[in-house]
Design a protein that fits this description.
This protein has 112 residues and is mainly alpha-helical. The chain has a domain at 26-97. The chain has 2 helices and 3 strands, in the order E-H-H-E-E. It has a 3-stranded antiparallel sheet, with no helix packed on it. A hairpin with a 5-residue loop joins strand 2 and strand 3. Helix 1 (29-54) runs antiparallel to helix 2 (60-97). The protein is elongated, with a radius of gyration of 20 Å. It binds zinc ion. The site of zinc ion has 8 residues, from loops.
Length: 112
């Protein structure tokens, strides 16, 4: 099974909703936690750098929050790493169950 557009061979394909009983991949909770945690960490780091450049350094609250969010990222990262094999299987099952695809390059729609 190939995940390419049959028309233009692009790999930029996306699943088209098959209605209410469409299969969904089992997204692990660790990933749900990890993505926003990394996002918040990036924002905090950018703010800290900004404060170091334009001010007298990052405030203590900001430093503590950065450390806390960093710890959350590490924990979520470890949990996700453990969930990864299950997540891969779940994603593969989803890709195989998904019959209806759409190409983002040429808007071609097809069914496997
Ligand atoms: Zn295409």
């Amino acid at each position: 099974m190939q995940y390419r557009c049959p028309k233009c061979q692009s790999v930029k394909i996306m699943p088209v909703s098959q209605g209410t009983n469409s299969p969904r991949p089992n997204v692990p909770k660790s990933l749900v936690l990890l993505v926003p945690a990394i996002f918040i960490l990036l924002i905090l780091v950018v703010i800290s750098i900004g404060m170091w450049i334009f001010g007298n350094g990052a405030g203590q609250t900001l430093q503590i929050s950065t450390v806390v969010v960093f710890a959350v990222c590490v924990i979520a990262g470890v949990l996700f790493w453990r969930d990864l094999p299950d997540f891969k299987i779940s994603m593969q099952a989803f890709m195989q169950a998904q019959k209806h695809w759409k190409c983002r390059d040429c808007n071609h729609e097809w069914q496997n």
